[in-house]
Amino acid sequence: VSSIAIRFENGKLELLDQQQLPHQEIWVDATHPDNMESCIKQLKVRGAPLIGVAAALCLGEWARSGVSEDEFKVAAQKLRKSRPTAVNLMLAIDRLTAMEFDAEKVFLEAQKIYEEDQQLCDRIAENGSKLIEDGDNIITHCNTGGLATAGVGTALGVIRKAWEQGKRIHVCVDETRPLLQGGRLTTWELEKLGIPYTLICDNMAASLMAAGKINKAIVGSDRIALNGDFANKIGTYGLAVHCYYHRIPFFVAAPVTTIDGECESGQQIPIEERNDFEVRGVKTFAGDVEWAPSESEVYNPAFDVTPSELVSQWILDTGNYSLVDIRENALKELV
Ligand code: MRU
């Protein structure tokens, strides 16, 4: 597979601008670390594994462009701070800065990070597909596919694999307020793949569960603590609580690069807070809608933490893990 979100040719790194999807497919240049930084901050490129891969490729190319070690390190630190929650970003960058500064070697290592992410996705998809059965109606949150990773995705990769195995499944897509990664991006991917789906508002999930219309949930993660607690897009925790009450299996799918070996529990995961206007809407001369009073006080955490006891299985590239496995320190052995 080649990435649907990143193009990298002749020293030029381009990103499919995810802010413009689903209606426009525009590629933007992110070869220079300053451009990459603003693309990450503005979510033109997003998803935990993908921002790690994109930042790594950018630094690999930056090293090769003839900059000094100091210039390289400054750019690396800037990119490392561009978003705080997804640990994949820090891990990918630390891997490059820990090396001896040799432009060609750094470049090759960045390529390796890109290729490895694709392989990790394939293994997650293979492992997770074993948990999906013919006739399943699966709810998912945010976007976890080819637009969030360098490969087939995490949660969405599992869904895709199950579909390719011939299982007749249906996906319920949470629109994912406030930035609508479900409504704009997951729908776009599922359309292209031809997988049947229904788009719902986040607040509809519980009643669909009560009506027996959902029998599995699968989401991705931005950081998994050693005790199995994990951060993911805001709204994931609520979805997990709904699943628990309705006795619906709730799975989290992620590569080992999402496990933070320094984080004992979810309480230590830093949660990004974003701009007010994402919740309130914006009024511009172009007529965008501001649906709340301009002066409204807003709270906008981009992620929440789901405690491990709400998770039925952790689907990783190394296998599927139960709460018992996690309590026996399965994650510690992987990092
Ligand atoms: O703010 P985003 O869009 O970068 O958030 C992305 C998510 O929360 C995904 O679920 C997570 O990164 C896992 S994607 C494989």
Instruction: Give the count of helical stretches.
Output: 11
Radius of gyration: 19 Å
- Helicity level, as a percent range? 25-40%
State the separation between the terminal residues, measured CA to CA.
27 Å
Structural class: alpha/beta
**Proportion of strand residues:** 5-15%
- Average pLDDT rating: 97
Helix/strand order: EEEHHHHHEHEHEHEEEHEHEEEH
Task: Record the strand order, biggest sheet.
Answer: 6-5-4-7-10-12-13
Entry keywords:
binds 5-S-methyl-1-O-phosphono-5-thio-D-ribulose, 3-stranded antiparallel beta sheet, 11 helices, 335 residues, 37% helix, alpha/beta, 7-stranded mixed beta sheet
Notes on the structure:
The protein has 335 residues and is an alpha/beta fold. Helix content is 37%, strand content 15%. The protein contains 11 helices and 13 strands. It has a 7-stranded mixed sheet, with helices on both faces. α1 (33-41) packs antiparallel against α2, α2 (48-64) runs antiparallel to α5 (103-129) and α3 packs antiparallel against α4 (87-97). The longest helix has 27 residues, at 103-129. The two termini are 27 Å apart. Bound molecules: 5-S-methyl-1-O-phosphono-5-thio-D-ribulose (MRU). 5-S-methyl-1-O-phosphono-5-thio-D-ribulose binds next to α2 and β9. The site of 5-S-methyl-1-O-phosphono-5-thio-D-ribulose has 19 residues, from α2 and β9.
